[in-house]
Every structure is written in C-alpha cells, then in structure tokens.
Amino acid sequence: MDVICNICSVLKLIGGVLNKAVSFLVFCVLDLVDFILCFVYKVIDFFIEAEWKPCYCTSAKEAITGSGKILVSEQGESKIVCLTSTKLQLEDISDTLYSRPSLVTEVSKLTVNELKKLKFDGTIIQSCEKIKKGTVRSTFSINSTIVEMLQGKMVGQQLHPIPRWSDCDCKHCNSWTSSSKDTLFVKAEGPKDKAREDVLFIHGFISSSAFWTETLFPNFSSTAKSTYRFLAVDLLGFGRSPKPADSLYTLREHVDMIEKSVLEANKVKSFHVVAHSLGCILALAIAVKHPGSVKSLTLLAPPYYPVPKGEPATQYIMRRIAPRRVWPVMAFGSSIACWYEHISRTICLVICKNHRLWEFLTKLITRNRVRTFLFEGFMCHTHNAAWHTLHNIICGTASKLDRYLDAVRDRLKCDVTIFHGKDDQVIPLECSYNVQRKIPRARVKVVENKDHITIVVGRQKAFARELEEIWKRSSTSN
Q1: How many helices (H) and strands (E) does the chain have?
Q2: Are 251 and 399 in contact, with CB atoms under 8 Å apart?
Q3: Residues 180-209 pLDDT 10s
C-alpha cells in the first residue's frame, strides 16, 4: 500500500511539473500570437471603420478614452469619469484590463511608450466627498462650465459603428437598435397587478434570460405562477439587451440598467432574487442597495474568492480563475478568455458573429433533437461586452465582495440559500462555503453529480419546487 501511495505521489509530482512546463511554452506562444493579432486588428479596423481601434495591450489610457471616457487616478486605483448634469462620478474599472504581465506584452509596452508619449493637459480643482463604506462610486462637485466642456469633449468622440464589423449583425442580436427605449430585455411572466411578490432572475457570464425562461418558467406550479411575477433579464451586452460599443460594462452600469429596466419599469417593491455565477455579484450589489426590499437571496455557484491580506485583489482573482495552465481544460479556456484580448476577439468573431451557422449545423446534425437556447445564450454577445464584464465584474469587484457580504449578514434579514453542483469545474465548491463563512445563516446545498450548468438544466422541475419552498418560507418568516 505504501509503495502504491509513493508511486501515485511521484506521478502526481511529474504531472504537475509537466503541466507547468507545457503551460509555460504554450502561453509564451499565445502571448506572441496575441501580440501579432493586435496589429492585424488595428489594420483591419482602420480599413473597415476608418479609425485605429485602441486596445489595452498598448495603452490603457488610449483604450478607455477612445470610448468617450476620461481616465483618472484616485488613491492608486483606476477610475473613469462619468458625467451627470452637475456632477462628475468616479467609478472603478479593473486594472486587469490593462495589467496582465507577460514577456511579450511588457516588451511591447516599453516599445510603445518610447515611441509615443501621451500627455494630458488641464487641471480640475475638486473637493471630494468622503467615500462611505460599501458605496459603489464617489462624486465631487464641479463648476458647470467645466462639465459642459467635458461633455463637449466626450460627446464629440466618434462612437464605433453598431454593430462593429466583427460583431453579429442579425436581428436577434441587434433588436435593441430598432427601439427608442434604452433598457434591457426583460421576459416577464405572471400576474402584473395581482402578484403578491416579484422574483428577479439574473443569469451568469455569456448567458441570457433563456437560462431561466426555457427551464424554470414552464415548470413552476400553477400556484406559484398566480402568486409571483417572474422577471428574467438579459444583462447589458448579452442576449437581446443593448450592446453599446462605447460602454466599459462596469458594475455601476450593470446595476443601474437592472434598476431602470426591471425594478423601476415594473414598479417592483418587494422581490426575491435568483442569480447564477457572475449574476451573484450583481445580486449582492442590488441587495445591499435595496436592503428593505429583498425577501430572499438564492445564489447558484457564487464566484467568491477571499483575498489574502497584502495581495492585490484584482490580480489575485484573475490568477485564481485564469491560472495560465493548459490543464484542466476549464482553466485553459478561462485563461484564454481572461488574458488575451485579441485571441478572445478572434474566438468571438468565429463563434458569435456566425452563431446562426453553428445553430443550423447543430440542428442539422442532431436532427433538431437538441434545444439550442444554451447555444444562443453562449453566442449572443459582443467581444467588448464579454471582455469588459469579465474583468470589471469578476475581477474588479474583488475588493467589494467582502463589504457586500458583511452588509447582507448585518443589514439584511432575508433568507440566503446557496446551491452548488459537486462536479462544478468552473466555480469550485469552496466558493459557496466561503460565502457561508461570511454569512453564517446561509444554507449551502451541494447537488451530487451536477456541474455549473446542470445545477439547473436537467433538474429544472426539482429546482423549481425548491425555489417555491424558499419563497414560501421567506414570505412566512417575513
């Protein structure tokens, strides 16, 4: 027995060393490929759209200001300036957008910095308000004349075509362009005026409201359908919701659009929240902002990684979810999506722009036996939306999640239930237990033989009954 254990230990050690060695070589090649694609896309963008498209691998400032935003720095953190009628609002962006160290990118940045010196003239005299604990943004008053000047500068920026040449131009993906309403797509079911309570469903990364409407909605009991109004939203940049080319898809933008499109538009006052994966972060932000309105929080595979003291939060999270390893396969896929701006754009160009072809081939091969709503959710987004949402929400909120969880524990009295598939290879099971350690009253239910998707898909009837029980229990206790 001891001999077998020793052999297994040696094999595991050898496997780990080989994984690191192969990963180093593979990602060095990918670094070079992404570097080359950077220039390829600049040339193509120039010929098709008549302008150079800034990117993060050369200049963060140029990439951000190129979308009509103003980049500033506050206490060593990156922020962008957003304008209202009389105020400038500072909102966080993740430094992982432009700080992903590799040999090739560091060399390219040094070269570009030597060839081109960026200079920003002008001074803004500001008096910052104290940032309250747990707030999403900070504001400072400023002379209205300066606001008008900055608005002129930002409005004067030429926005990129919608859709861009590398984005899908089908009616499904761009249905929002034909509407005068600047709101998200929301699928609502249930009694509008007679509903006792509302339920907000928030999907995860590169998904859509169909994740809920095609699985849970048909399987709720008649009692639930007559008691609750179900509201499933397509997040900004995904599904049939707007996909603005000049957006940085920050936490504020996502939360504000959900409030505007769901809570305000449907006059929601008391509601339950059901969220999956990345959607759990938005659910926590909304719950903290509306503590008196949330009746229950149901989180599926919440991506919460406690950050060790002294570690840069955003960089730590990026390396946890994207470790630059070729094995396991999910780690390799997440590393491609997170580290490589231009390779991931190429993948979106092949998959998302041609999603109608892939859907047709899937139906043809399977003889229309496979429902394609998951494919639609996976493919109906732009690279700009996926890239910025991944970095600004998953990585960029790393320093905020502890405050959100503390607020849910201390300020909210609602039930908190967490579901996690035991075979989930996207978000490790430990993340759900990490949340429970922050919120002791939270109940964690581990579902055997289920992964990140099959936690819902394939067990929708059972999960619908579980949700109804949670809502009933929460309504009774409240």
Answers
A1: 17, 12
A2: no
A3: 678 999 999 988 777 789 999 999 999 999
Would you call 336 helix, strand, or coil by DSSP?
helix
Q: How far is residue 115's CA from residue 37's CA, in Å, rounded to a whole number? A: 20
Collapse the DSSP code of 228 into the 3-class scheme (helix H, G, I; strand E, B; otherwise coil) and give the result: strand
Q: How many C-beta atoms lie closer than 10 Å to residue 361's C-beta?
A: 11
* Residue 97 · residue 340 · CB < 8 Å: no
396, 461 contact by CB (below 8 A): no
Amino acid making up residue 316: Y
What are the backbone dihedrals phi and psi of residue 231, each rounded to the nearest 5 degrees, phi first? -125, 105
pLDDT tens for each residue of 100-148: 876 555 555 555 555 555 443 443 334 333 433 444 444 444 444 434 4
Residue 312 backbone phi and psi in degrees, to 5: -65, 115
Residues belonging to the chain:
478
By CB neighbour count within 10 A (0-12 exposed, 13-18 middle, 19+ buried), where does 477 fall? exposed
Hey, what's the torsion of the CAs at 336, 340, 344, 345, to 10 degrees?
180
**Residue 18: half-sphere exposure toward Cβ, Cα within 13 Å:** 8
Q: Is 416 helix (H, G, I), strand (E, B) or coil?
A: strand
| Number of neighbours of residue 322 by Cβ within 10 angstroms | 23
Q: Give catalytic residues, as residue numbers.
A: 203, 277, 424, 452
